[in-house]
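Input.
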Amino acid sequence: MTDSPVALITGGGSGIGAAVARQLLDAGHRVAVTGRGEPRLRAFAEGLGEPAGLLTITGDAADYDDVRAAVDRTIEEYGRLDTVVANAGFATHDAVADGDPSGWARMVLTNVLGPALLIRASVDALKATGGRIVLVGSVAGFVNTPGNLYGATKWAVTGLAENTRRQVTELGIGVTLIAPGRVETPFWGGTDSLPPGRLLTADQIADSVVWAIRQPAGVDINTVVVRPLGQPN
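Output.
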C-alpha cells in the first residue's frame, strides 16, 4: 500500500470527481479529494466506509494557497503524487447578453484559474514520479453555443491542456483532457433541470479518466471526448 499510486482530485466530493475517486480506490490507488464544503467531503468519506487510502481536504480550487496546501498535505500523508485531476467547476447556466454577472467571476476563476493553479502547485511532484495531469473539460469547450460563458471557460481549459502538454511533456509528465458531453451529475442543479435525451453517468466518465491514468509508461493520452449516443453537438 505504501508504494501504491497517489491521486489528488479537486471537487472530488460529488459527481465525476467522486466517481473517479471511488474507481481509483478500487484499483488500489491512494486518493486525496478536495472541496469547499467540509460536510460534503465528510459524507463522501463516510459513505465509502472511511477507507484508509482516502484523504479529504477542505479548500477552494481557485485559491493558490489552498491548492498548494492540498498538494503539500497529500505528499506529506502519502509520500508521493502521481496524478492530479482538475475536476472542480460549475456553470451559472445563463448567457452573456442577458445573464446575471454576479456569479461569473467565481465561475471563471474556478473553471480556468483553478486548473492552472493545480498544475503549478503539482508540477514538481509529478516530474519526480513521471505523473499525469488530467483536466476535466467539456464538449462545450469544442462546440460554440449562443451566449455560453461557461462554454468559453471550457474552451480555455481545452487550450490550457494542450499548452500545458507542450511544456511538460519533456519533463516526463502526461496531460489528458477529458471532455464529457451531457452527464447526469449535480452540475445541472436537480432533476427538473436535466437536459433532454440520453445522459452519461459520472461512472462512465470516470472510466475514461481511470483508463487514461492507467496507461503504460511512455503512453500519453491527450484528448478524450465522450458523448452519449444521441447528442449531436
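Residues 6-226 form a domain with the Rossmann fold fold (CATH 3.40.50.720).
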